Amino acid sequence: MGLIDNAKDAGEATAKRVGEFVDDTKERVSDAADQAQADAEVSKAEADLERAKAESEATKAKNEYKEDLR
Q: N or C, which end of the chain has less CB nearby within 10 Å?
């Protein structure tokens, strides 16, 4: 029975390691997706900031032009 018990133990250990590998891989993929989403949010925020700066500069230029006309 020793050989069968050894084979059973080896099978259980292998199954456990495969399960851990799958869990680790799933976690890495989830982390990568979270990072990609965070990077996209940062890029959007930076673009919004640049747009706001451009609008502010345009408004300032418009107001200066109106002031020059007075």
A: C
Region of 36 on the Ramachandran plot (φ > 0 left; ψ -120 to 50 alpha; else beta): alpha
Q: Which pTM does this prediction carry?
A: 0.61
Domain count, the chain: 1
Q: How far apart are CA 52 and CA 54, in angstroms?
A: 5
Report the C-alpha gap between 59 and 2 in whole angstroms: 85
**Interval 30-48 mean pLDDT:** 97
- Domain interval for residue 17: 1-70
CB atoms within 10 A of CB 62: 10
